[in-house]
Amino acid sequence: MKQNAENQLGNYLKRLREERGLSIRGLARQAGIHDTGLVRIERGDIRTPRPEKLRRLAMALEVPLADLLAMAGYVVPYDLPSLTPYLRARYGHLPEASLTSIDNYLKQLIDEHDLDPRGPNGFEDEASESAER
Asked: How far apart, in Å, are the Cα atoms of 90 and each of 4, 66, 96, 99, 125?
């Protein structure tokens, strides 16, 4: 995994933790992990956090597991991450202000067009294609 991706995951976790008003110890306690491990993830010292640890953090932070797996560089074939972690994982080399601007614009488009940001349900997209034919 690239160093940039490690820092993106750590920065993302730290931002989520702070938005929820949690200390490192508080989040670690909720997730059932050691606080030193969380510090190392936030700093980017841990190259590839174990999926189980990411699952625990996702549950404690109430975010989709796919988001954290994508930020950590794991391939998640059964689910797509949300826009914010995807942008940061894919375009982490861009300045934070640019990523925030892209994210805000996409959210605006989703709201304007009344879209579901989670995408189609089941085989919803295939059904509409066959109806068009």
From this structure: 10, 14, 13, 10, 25
Judge contact between 99 and 8, C-beta under 8 A: no
List the pLDDT tens digit at each of the 133 positions of the chain: 444 544 788 999 999 999 999 999 999 999 999 999 999 999 989 878 999 999 999 999 999 888 888 888 887 666 666 777 777 777 778 888 888 888 889 888 888 888 776 665 544 444 444 444 4
| Residues 49/8, Cβ–Cβ less than 8 Å | no
Give me the numbers of helices (H) and strands (E) for the chain, helices first please.
Answer: 8, 0
CA-to-CA distance for 54 and 17, rounded, in angstroms? 14
What global pTM score does this model have? 0.60
Residue that the structure tokens 């989670």 belong to: 118
